[in-house]
Design goal:
- The chain has six helices and four strands.
- The protein has a two-stranded antiparallel ribbon. Strands 3-4 form a two-stranded antiparallel sheet.
- Strand 3 and strand 4 form a beta hairpin.
- The chain is rod-shaped, with a radius of gyration of 37 Å.
- The model has no long low-confidence stretch (mean pLDDT about 85).
């Protein structure tokens, strides 16, 4: 009995010190198998959630740049109208053209930006970036719609042939820049849809992770109150068994004294 109680006391102490009900496969072999699967799924879910959060940051960075592009294109459209003013001289239009060209250069530069080495607005082939984001631990993906600042609409407005140095060119430039603004509005709407959808996936993964953790906790986490009671019980039994064994060991000595 002392040996059994000592083993139970050690097992209880191991559970309390580790915080786990399963300190060896023998404690609950089936529970351990289920827990291992849940733990692996929790880890995969966490990795997928990191992927989604990084994709959200990617989209937010895209939109941050496009907000500035919108400001630049709006100013360019203003310059195309100002350059059509019949009271302006050629020298005046040259100044408009200087600012217009500077803004074109700025927007063209934005098209080359990247996020952690991944192009924000076009791949090496010059087409829109479409990224497949892993959205769960089983490898399912969501395809984000990309934005290409090098497409024909933008290229026309940002090309060297689009000028405001005379009234005729300014009218053509107004059409080109207006088309670019319309395209930009569509692109920002796509980014907004990406962010919204990824936000749903992020919330879904958070819920899944919490529920998986709760299920795993039911299997592996020790109930401290119950186990503390069990530990106290086993401790008392060990002390009692030790005392009784000591008493039993002393009985032969008593008999020998009677004989002598």
């Amino acid at each position: 009995m002392l040996e059994q109680n000592s083993a139970n006391l050690s097992a209880s102490l191991a559970r309390l010190s580790s915080g786990s009900k399963i300190t060896s496969p023998a404690d609950d072999s089936a529970g351990l198998a289920v827990s291992m699967k849940l733990t692996a799924q929790i880890s995969r879910t966490g990795a997928a959630q990191d992927n989604v959060n990084n994709a959200i940051s990617f989209n937010q960075t895209q939109d941050g740049y496009l907000q500035q592009v919108n400001t630049a294109l709006t100013r360019m459209s203003e310059l195309t109208v100002s350059a059509q003013d019949v009271t302006k001289t050629t020298a005046d239009r040259a100044l408009y053209q200087q600012e217009f060209s500077t803004l074109q250069t700025y927007v063209n530069d934005v098209a080359t930006k990247s996020f952690n080495g991944v192009s924000l607005f076009a791949d090496k082939g010059g087409s829109a970036v479409a990224l497949n984001v892993t959205t769960d631990g089983d490898g399912a993906t969501f395809s984000m719609r990309g934005v290409d600042l090098n497409n024909a609409t933008y290229a026309t407005a940002l090309g060297a042939s689009t000028k405001v140095d005379n009234i005729a060119d300014a009218k053509t430039a107004l059409t080109n820049v207006t088309n670019s603004i319309d395209q930009l509005a569509s692109d920002r709407a796509s980014i907004g849809a990406n962010e919204e959808t990824l936000g749903y996936y992020n919330n879904q993964l958070s819920t899944l992770s919490n529920n998986l953790s709760a299920a795993n906790s039911q299997i592996t986490d020790v109930d401290v109150a119950t186990e503390s009671t069990n530990y106290a019980k086993q401790n008392i039994l060990v002390q009692s068994a030790t005392a009784m064994l000591a008493q039993a060991n002393s009985m032969p000595q008593s008999v020998l004294r009677l004989i002598s």
